[in-house]
Design a protein that fits this description.
Elements: E1 2-8, H1 13-24, E2 29-36, H2 42-49, E3 54-56, H3 59-62, H4 66-77, E4 81-84, H5 94-98, E5 103-107, H6 122-131, E6 135-142, E7 152-159, H7 166-189, E8 193-196, E9 199-202
Parallel strand pairs: 1-2, 1-4, 2-3, 4-5
Antiparallel strand pairs: 5-6, 6-7, 8-9
Helix pairs in contact: 1-7, 6-7
Bound molecules: glycinamide ribonucleotide (GAR).
Length: 205
């Protein structure tokens, strides 16, 4: 069975969307472990409620060694794919080399807009509204050494209205995130994704 690790920092609605799609049979995967960089993340409760093994690696305790600890755990567990879903720590080092094109991230904008350093959560939607864009959305991409720079797997769009608040836009985008992330996981689990430099080729059924 294809094994995934989901890395979170907060509420974990994306984690919940993966849990739901595993339960419904859409995803033929096992969530082997949920790793949080915060003990307070509500996503840990979501995992426990669903009998998924979950641990918190506090940033204070691991500091610069957080990525190495994640690598140790995912190797021990035989994880095939790492999914960062609202995970706010930066991953680096050997983990990125050993899991090249096996770590995916979800970002709440249409990359390369409103991404990079400081662009997370509501900040992203505030920036999109202030700029006055008429469309935003979400992006699932492979993780590389940069921030939000890896090859793009899936993007989904939503309209942006002049009257929008960041909270309203966030809600609209999250609905798309909850479709896009399981879709990307399924494509990878079914071996339908091939990466050539920046381009991601997806096999049609
Ligand atoms: C999601 O909107 C995700 O795209 C975003 O954090 C939120 C986490 O929500 N990630 C980033 O901004 C990363 N740059 P969740 O905990 O409910 O899944």
């Amino acid at each position: 069975m294809f094994k995934i690790a989901v890395l979170i920092s907060g509420g974990g609605t994306n984690l919940q969307s993966i849990i739901d799609k595993v339960k419904s049979g859409y995803l033929n995967c096992k969530i082997e472990i949920v790793i949080s960089d915060s003990e307070k993340a509500y996503g840990i409760e979501r995992a426990k409620e669903n009998n998924i093994y979950a641990i918190a690696l506090s940033k204070k305790q691991y500091g610069d060694k957080l990525s190495d600890e994640v690598l140790k755990i995912v190797e021990e567990k035989g994880v095939d794919l790492i999914v960062t879903a609202g995970f706010l720590s930066i991953l680096k080092g050997d983990l990125l080399k050993k899991f090249k094109n096996r770590i995916i991230n979800i970002h709440p904008s249409l990359i390369p807009s409103f991404c990079g350093k400081g662009m997370y959560g509501l900040n992203v939607h505030k920036a999109a509204i202030s700029y006055g864009v008429k469309a935003s959305g979400c992006t699932v991409h492979f993780l590389d050494e940069g921030t939000d720079t890896g090859p793009i797997i899936i993007q989904k769009t939503v309209p942006v209205f002049a009257e929008d608040t960041a909270e309203l836009l966030q809600k609209r985008v999250l609905e798309k995130e909850h479709e896009a992330l399981p879709e990307a996981i399924r494509l990878i689990a079914e071996n339908k994704v091939e990466v050539q430099e920046r381009k991601v080729f997806i096999e049609n059924n």
